[in-house]
């Protein structure tokens, strides 16, 4: 049974995650050529397909987080995306400069932690302060 305060905490968690992804998606879109170049430097295959998918996942995913729309499936998609970006974008095991390697390791594990947050959203759902919550049948005041 979900307490009323739980929905507020889930909403705050969704917003905290959304800010990161909306900002990142918009920055990728406004600096699209640089983002494509970065993906090419990382050896990402099919960059012409991967780049728009990344922008869409981050901007639409961020928007869906704010709205609380389709949060359970979104949680899985965003967790997988965040782990994939950790592996491709923060590959600290390929870095020889100690300071840069340390920085990449922090970013790698940060992404893994964020993926954990998305998995929690998959389990909890969006809460009542959401489109999903508004569409779900409610049983009393506790849901």
From TrEMBL:
It holds the Pfam family DoxX. Its main location: membrane. It is found in: Cell membrane. It is a multi-pass membrane protein. Keywords: Cell membrane, Membrane, Transmembrane, Transmembrane helix. The chain crosses the membrane at residues 7-26, 46-67, 74-92, 112-131. InterPro entries: DoxX, DoxX-like_oxidoreductase. Belongs to the DoxX family. PANTHER family: INNER MEMBRANE PROTEIN YPHA-RELATED, OXIDOREDUCTASE CATD-RELATED. This is Inner membrane protein YphA. It comes from Paraburkholderia gardini. The lineage of its organism: Bacteria, Pseudomonadati, Pseudomonadota, Betaproteobacteria, Burkholderiales. The gene is yphA.
């Amino acid at each position: 049974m979900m307490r009323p305060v739980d929905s507020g905490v889930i909403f705050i968690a969704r917003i905290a995650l959304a800010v990161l992804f909306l900002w990142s998606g918009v920055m990728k879109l406004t600096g699209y050529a640089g983002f494509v170049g970065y993906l090419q430097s990382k050896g990402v295959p099919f960059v012409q397909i991967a780049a728009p998918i990344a922008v869409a996942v981050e901007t639409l995913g961020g928007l869906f987080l704010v709205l609380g729309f389709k949060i359970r499936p979104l949680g899985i998609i965003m967790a997988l995306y965040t782990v994939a970006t950790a592996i491709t974008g923060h590959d600290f095991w390929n870095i020889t400069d100690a300071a840069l390697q340390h920085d990449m390791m922090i970013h790698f594990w940060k992404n893994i932690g964020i993926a954990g947050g998305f998995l929690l959203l998959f389990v909890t759902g969006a809460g009542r302060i959401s489109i999903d919550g508004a569409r779900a049948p409610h049983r009393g005041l506790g849901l």
